[in-house]
Amino acid sequence: MSALTTELPVRFADVEAAAERLRGVAVTTPLLESEALNALVGGRLLIKPEPLQRTGSFKFRGAYNAIAALRPPAVVAYSSGNHAQGVALAARLLGISATIVMPADAPRTKLDGTRALGAAVVTYDRATDDREAIGREIAERTGAVLIRPYDEPLIMAGQGTVGLELAEQAARIGGRLDAALVCCGGGGLVAGCAVALTHEVPGIEVYAVEPEGFDDTARSLAAGQRLRNAVDARSFCDALLAPMPGELTFAVNARLLAGGLVVTDAEVASAMRLAFRHLKLVIEPGGAVALAAALAGKLPTRDRTIGIVVSGGNVDAELFADVLGRAA
Amino acid sequence: MSALTTELPVRFADVEAAAERLRGVAVTTPLLESEALNALVGGRLLIKPEPLQRTGSFKFRGAYNAIAALRPPAVVAYSSGNHAQGVALAARLLGISATIVMPADAPRTKLDGTRALGAAVVTYDRATDDREAIGREIAERTGAVLIRPYDEPLIMAGQGTVGLELAEQAARIGGRLDAALVCCGGGGLVAGCAVALTHEVPGIEVYAVEPEGFDDTARSLAAGQRLRNAVDARSFCDALLAPMPGELTFAVNARLLAGGLVVTDAEVASAMRLAFRHLKLVIEPGGAVALAAALAGKLPTRDRTIGIVVSGGNVDAELFADVLGRAA
């Protein structure tokens, strides 16, 4: 019983405070719905499109919330790209210098986007270097505060504003959410969203969705403890390649989630094509896993209303064109 | 002086009435802004993304407004695709049967989309058949009311709700619109938007934007009379291939517009790529001409705030992938 009474690292009030900090700064992304996608699943999909967020992903929300709350003299972050751009823009808006540690093989659009936002970029080799150690070294040397990508209450609270808006916007159009699907790398977005959604929508089932090979949260939820992904796992969902659940994110997710769902790269590519066609939205692979889970029937959708978080759209033109060209 | 005192076929009150009919039915598309695009033009671009509208273009607004106001027993329409889908969905929502006359070489996504919305589709040869005659024949034979694509006050008023929302949303974020750019085929969208924008934003300059070879409105505005495009003109902006300005749309546009701007197919393709990268939005060629005009410097943008109507996103995957692959 003790687990049920322990306080979570993020509470609903923290998400509300984040929403207040982000007012007039973050985009209140609209809630999208497509006749065609609804017909495909026999239910109602209410889609929250964070590609339309500043920097092209939800990551700006958490980064701005953390930096605005902490107001450090400088910041450093390590990221495959979306957190990088979020931190870079948030720091610039708040007049704080930022250094970002990024893998050398990150999508070019993410590397270029981060530099264009005025951050200093330090690249590393994903296979041989330890990005956390590099980030810590820069923090110690320059006095910058490390802005973690997910395992930090202020980050989770900021990402949770996606779930808060989803709940409010769905209620406004008379949609009663039976479930919500949220992509999951380190687990910060789904943790924050779960805090907001379970508070606002009693009885809602919130699922983490992960790409095949990186289903650490699904397996950890089933096992009741944090498990790692295989070191040789590969996926084209570059935004979701965290090695294992965060300590704080898993504490939230183990308590609030209904479970984890897993999708293949082919299912993700199909969802990207359907979003191109019916939503007119550019979604990156990691941003499309939740939509892919609904379209591939990984949970019951008939006559149900499902909230879907589409988390980002920072995908290189070459890869996007390649996905469009693949057989459906 | 008589031209200045003649009443226009569409007044601001007609746009307000359309907004009332569309409330809770059409999507109030958000207003988007990109740090990167603003930096490119040295000003502020406030972008109204109608690809996020139901059926993927603004055409749903006018179609629904007209059919909801007229409540005919059945409707027929001729269209290269976007008006087709708009009429098909509007008719279905209002419980009215629809027949759509479409060119056989229309983008597959538009043909399929129209059929999927429950309309009967009749195809014709763009080079040899007269689509207006085919539409009239069906109307006479079946008793259906013809829903014109642009030269109809209820259609213009419905499209004008795009401009009304643009004015309201820009004001809400403190943006004072110096100019607005709106794509122009037959001229219904820009006419409706001009009625709304010139009423709401005193002193605003509203421009029609057309693809090279189909600059009939630009030339007609300069000449003070309606002029035709060359019969052998070609453009990949399939949504904007009207042969000459409409009679009613030109009456409005000649009075309210600041002028016409013209963009090349290459400038349009470049705008589509920049929208992919920075807005995460799928835009069809005809939907991107206004954005292309701003990005290609067809009017002064430095330190100005420019409203941009992006009108639709119904583009085939093959063409979109091809545009992404072209050199910038």
Describe what you observe in this structure.
The structure is a homodimer. With about 325 residues, chain A is α/β, with parallel strands linked by helices. Chain A has 2 domains: about 1-55 and about 150-325, Rossmann fold; about 60-145, Rossmann fold (3-Layer(aba) Sandwich), CATH 3.40.50.1100. Chain A is about 45% helix and about 15% strand. The first copy, chain A, has helices spanning about 1-5, 10-20, 35-40, 60-70, 80-95, 110-115, 130-140, 155-170, 190-200, 215-225, 245-255, 265-280, 290-295, 315-325; strands at about 45-50, 75-80, 95-105, 120-125, 145, 180-185, 205-210, 260-265, 305-310. In chain A, the strands form 2 sheets. A 5-stranded parallel sheet of chain A has the order 1-9-6-7-8, sandwiched between helices. In chain A, helix 2 (about 10-20) packs across helix 4 (about 60-70), helix 4 (about 60-70) packs across helix 8 and helix 12 (about 265-280) packs across helix 13. The longest helix of chain A has 20 residues, at about 155-170. The radius of gyration of chain A is 18 Å and the shape is globular. In chain A, about 60% of the residues are buried. The interface between A and B is large, with 35 and 36 residues.
